[in-house]
Each structure stands twice: as C-alpha cells, then as structure tokens.
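Lab notebook, bench 4. The sequencing result for the construct came back, and we need a structural model before the next group meeting so we can plan mutations. Quick request posted to the team channel:

Model the 3D structure of this chain.
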Amino acid sequence: MSENPVLETIVEMNALAMAKLDVSVEALLLVRLAALVAVDAPPASYLVTLGAGVDSMLDLEDVRSVLIAVAPVVGTPKVVSAVRNIAEALGMAISLEELAEAEAEAEMA
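Done. Here's the predicted structure in token form:
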C-alpha cells in the first residue's frame, strides 16, 4: 500500500480526466476554479488548482475574471467566501515556500 492512498487516488482521477479532454490546461483550470467557487471549496482545494495554474501562467486577472463571471450564478456569499479562501490558499503557498527555503538554507549550513 502506498504512503498516501487518498492523494494518489486524487492524482489518478485528475490524470484520467485530463487525458480525456481536448482543451488547454488554462481552460481546464479556469473551469475548475469556477467549480470550486460554486461548491464553496476550502483553501486547500484552491491551493492545488492555483498551484497548477502557476505552471500554466494563470494570473490574478484570470482569477478575477472567473469570480466576476460566476457571481451572477453562484451569488455574492460564495464569491466573497472564494476570495477569502483564495487569499488563505495563497498565504499557505507562501508559508510552504518559506519553509522550503528555510530547509534548503539549513541543509547548506
């Protein structure tokens, strides 16, 4: 059994879904971002999606555009919640990056 079967399952599900699609990575991530807003996803979900977006060059304007586009459908409370969760996810990403940098410096010392 693997060390993290839940994470492996999620990765496998995403890989299978992506293999069946004929869209750009950017389009896929924008659609997923809209879905996360619609289900009021937690910060960790945004971290995964926006982390993948960094590699594909999604920027803050793309995120803002999705939030504006879905607002009439999902409503103000979910958009406000999404903004809070995205901000928290970005804070988590910064903390993880700082931790990695500190560990790298400690190894060099």
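Residues 44 and 104 are 24 Å apart (CA to CA).
Will bring this to the meeting.
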